[in-house]
Amino acid sequence: MRHPFLVTLCLTGAVALSACGDSKDDSVERAIQNVNAVDETNLSDVMLTVADPNEAVSYFQRTLKDNPDRIDLQRGVAISLVRAKRYTEAVPAWQKVVKHKDSTDVDRVDMADAMIRAGDWDGAEKVLDAIPPTHETFKRYRLEAMIADSNQEWRKADSYYETAVGLTTRPSGVLNNWGYSKLSRGDYADAERLFGDAIRQDQSLFTAKNNMVLARGAQRKYTLPVIPMVQTERAQLLHTLALSAIKQGDTETGKTLLREAIETHPQHFEAAVRSLRALEEGSAS
Question: Whole-model pTM?
Answer without folding.
Answer: 0.80
